Amino acid sequence: SRPPTDEQGSGLSTVTSLGPPRSLVTAAALPAYHQDPFDRILVAQAVTSPLRLLTSDAVLRRYSELVEVI
User: Fold this and answer.
1) Spatial distance between the Cα atoms of 50 and 47, rounded to a whole number of angstroms
2) Which of 20, 24, 32, 45 is the most exposed place for a label (fewest CB within 10 A)?
3) Which residues contact 40 (CB under 8 A, 6 or more apart)?
């Protein structure tokens, strides 16, 4: 059987992207305070969402006030 379409009340919708996700573009533009690209992606996700990023890595605090060192 076919999966339900949005018209059938699945609650799902299709997202069309015309380029890379905004958080990845932001991550690529961040200064290289931190050498781990995955950590920069986490910071970029926090900044673009906006969400608070909780971390034990004090270096990441240099990127944004949304980064909180615990």
Assistant:
1) 5
2) 32
3) 27, 30, 34, 63
